[in-house]
Structures are given as structure tokens and as C-alpha cells.
Amino acid sequence: MILPGDSPQAIEQCARHLRGGGLVGLPTETVYGLAANAHDDAAVARIFAAKGRPADHPLIIHVAGVQALGHFAHGVPAYCTALLQAFWPGPLTVVLRRNTGMAMAASGGHGTIALRCPAHPVAQALLAKLADAAAGGACWGSQVWGLAAPSANRFGKVSPTTAQHVAEEFGEAFPVLDGGPCAVGIESTIVDCTHDRPVLLRPGVLTGQALHEACGVALAAPTQAQQPVRAPGTLASHYAPRARVRLLEEQALRDALHTLPPTAAQRVAVWSRWEDAPTAIRQCTMPDVAAEAARQLFAVLRNYDAEGVEEIWVQTVPDSPEWEGVRDRLQRAAATWTHTD
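Below the sequence we write its predicted C-alpha cells.
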């Protein structure tokens, strides 16, 4: 059931649903999330069951602002505070040391916790409504709300960027607040802030340079021990459509298209930064600007899946910092093809 995100009645309905242990499809600026009360382990278990996600894979907890930080976590380093001042609300998730007893199920049983403050007005309106109810005593013994909200899709598959995507994935299983298409389009940047310097666990639209400039500390690459379970979306194969994704340099892609037998043309679709593929082949033009390509990425993959293609051939993206988030998502989407080709 899709509800208008700009309706106070719909916000109240979803707040009641969450307080009762239910799930809600939630728009954020990155992708749509599948939200539950982070303090309610039974509700969080419903997220894992709905997604088919292993229970030891932590979820991101969405909070209204930095005032919630001390409720869930401790040991916040100065560089983390600087990052939050620069990028919250926004597409940045920080991993911190979890306070004892806080959101254990949502954190996958780990001693760390992933926190984000979404910038989307609908997400903020829902968090505010829940906080109002908490202040009135209608909460789990705390006035600090957090919503565990991984992407609202089956585990490992393409993330949703519209309310309709969520409904197509889960049907009428829970209400979905419609906040329009996601402005960012790929998941948040995740930074581990439990060390003496920040560690980039998952790239997003925020570049390493932007993060460095904001906090004054250069980011470190994750060690093998810090991946893949401590942060969402860091499996080798992830964000994958039903169709196989193949990444090709421009000339290799052109050569492959022009040698493709006519009988195979209908099973292949292309996403590239040029438009002269053979006419029998479905083609969508990839934007030259990384932020716009990020916004379109998951919708393109979902649309091609809906058209029933068997393979999606994608031109590799530029090897520059602003494309890192898109490149990461494409490489993970193509991992199954890469491992079996």
C-alpha cells in the first residue's frame, strides 16, 4: 500500500504501525529503506525475514540528528564530529562503538553500530512524529527513536529508488511512504570511525577528498578484517539484477555489439555514454556527470530487468573519485558474471 509522503495522516498511520512492531517502506535521499523500530528486536527480525538477509549482517539505523548519537554509541572521535557537522543530514553513515544493550539485533550482534541522519523531509517527518509520541510516553521506554532501515529490496538485489519499486518487490506486505524518486540514487557512504583515522568501508556520492577536507584526516582503506560483515552492502556480489551485468571498456563494448548475432540482440541491453548501438538493441544513455549517473543507476537496471533482457552490457565508468560510488555498485552487480565468465 503506497501512501502519500506529504500527508500528515499517512505519517501518523506509519508511526503507529512502527510503534506496533510493523515495517514501513521509507524514502530517503539515497534509496528507499525498509524501516522498523531499532529498539524492537522482534520488529528488526521481520526486516531480516522479509529481505532474506543473514541476521549477522548489520543494518543502518536512521536518526533525527546528532543529538541521538550518545544514546546509541560512545567514543566519538573528533574527526567523526567534523564529518557529521559537514554531512548530516545527508548520505553519510558512520560506524561507531555501540552502547551496551542498544539495538543489538539491528547491529547483527556486533560491538559496533552504523548510524545515519537522512536528509529526506518525509524520513525526518516520520522520525519527528515518533519522537513526539515518545515524549508522550508511547514508546519503548526512551524518547530517542532510531529506525533500522536497510534498502527495501531482497537481499543482494537492486536497491529501490521509487515507492513503486518497493511495492513491486514486496506487494502489500507493509505501507510505503511515497517521497518521489530518490535524489541521490545509490546508498550512503559508510565510514568506520572506531579507529584513530577514518576508514572508508563503502563509497558513495561523497568523495574521499570531500571527506578528507571536512575532517582534516586522510581516509584509510579497510583491512580484510574490517570487511565484509561490519558494514552493509560490502559483499563481493551485491546490487544485482536478474539479468547478468557485464562491464566493458568502450571499444570492447562497441566490438561486442557489432559482432552480436541478430538472433541474440533482443536478449541484450546497453547502458553507455554514446547512442549509436545497433538499432535492434535496447540502449539507454549513461549521463556524463557522475551524480546523475548514480541517480539513474538502479532504475536503469530495474527497468531492463522488467523488459526481460538476459544480459546488461555497461560501459565502464571513468577512473576518477567522483565516479567511485557508481563504479563500486556496478562492480558488485557484475560480480556473478565476472566469477562465471
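The chain has two domains: 2-226, 244-340.
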